[in-house]
Design goal:
By secondary structure, the protein is of the alpha+beta class. It contains six helices and 14 strands. The N and C termini lie far apart (39 Å).
Length: 302
């Protein structure tokens, strides 16, 4: 595609230009498209590059036509609507990049049925720079998830921590799916109280890793796999094999590595959608049996 201001530097320290960013998204479009197609997007734009001001955008850009995206209206609790962009064609990915989009954020379900997600997501948020804790947390959370016969994929966030993602059959209510994610997180915390926490407030976490289960609300978002992050070096959110966890840091896969990552096997090819019906009940029972008390948490509904 024709790129406007292709020579504009987006990542100043590495000299990566807007043309490079659009080229990256053209290269990974086939990988990224299944994770963004049909979902209400929130995008992170830096029209002048990282040296300028960036912003999060939920409403569909006026520049994009209905041939590339459709618009999905969601009422706001305080009145009005948010008109999300929904990608329908793969070409829309590079079109977004040409508008200065660096990062794509996606919800766990599609707009055709946002109340029944097809992904379950945990975002591990360690203290800044504590990649050692992030790795230990990923191992511990995976152990807790596997207790219920659930397989999960590992991903660098491109930032400070890792994400764990499980494909699910889109039949479980979002509220129940989120409760399952929270329940597993609570069990992991109970087994590893010095390492993990469910405390939302950073002041209450200390040197523990926050197990963020809140990405599972219908219009809550997390970074899309294969999406760049707005950080120097141009790291991207990269699916990993579990055997790579101890070798690759959360921001350790960058644009420079993309050809190598594309040439390898898909680490998530074995992740088949699971039916959460039975695990939801088993998780709830395990939480009660462990004596874990989950306090009401209204943010999920906000």
């Amino acid at each position: 595609m024709s790129v406007s201001n292709a020579d504009r530097v987006v990542f100043p320290k590495s000299g990566i230009t807007k043309g490079d960013v659009v080229g990256y998204y053209e290269t990974v479009a086939g990988k990224l498209f299944p994770f963004v197609e049909g979902r209400a997007l929130t995008v992170e734009r830096y029209p002048k590059g990282l040296a300028g001001k960036g912003f999060m955008q939920k409403n569909a850009p006026e520049h994009l036509t209905g041939e590339l995206i459709r618009r999905h209206e969601v009422p706001k609790e305080d009145g009005g609507v948010t008109t999300y962009p929904v990608i329908e064609r793969i070409e829309a990915i590079s079109a977004f990049a040409n508008l200065g989009v660096i990062t794509f954020h996606v919800p766990p379900g599609r707009v055709v049925d946002p109340e029944h997600p097809d992904w379950l997501i945990w975002d591990l948020d360690p203290p800044p720079g504590r990649f050692d804790l992030a790795r230990a947390a990923a191992h511990a959370l995976r152990d807790a998830i596997s207790e219920f016969g659930i397989d999960t994929g590992l991903m660098t966030s491109g930032s400070n921590g890792y994400h764990l993602r499980t494909r699910i059959v889109a039949e479980t209510q979002a509220e129940h799916a989120a409760a399952a994610a929270r329940g597993i997180g609570a069990l992991a915390v109970d087994a590893n109280p010095e390492l993990l926490t469910l405390a939302f407030r950073k002041a209450e976490r200390g040197d523990r890793v926050f197990v963020d289960w809140l990405r599972n609300a219908p219009y809550s978002t997390s970074v899309a796999p294969w999406s760049l992050r707005a950080r120097e070096g141009a790291p991207f959110a990269c699916p990993l094999n579990w055997g790579e966890l101890d070798q690759i840091e959360p921001n350790g896969v960058t644009m420079a590595d993309v050809e190598e990552r594309l040439s390898g096997d898909d680490p998530w090819s074995g992740l088949s959608p699971i039916d959460l019906g039975n695990p939801v009940a088993a998780i709830d029972e395990a939480v009660k049996r462990a004596g874990v008390v989950l306090e009401p948490f209204d943010r999920f509904r906000s």
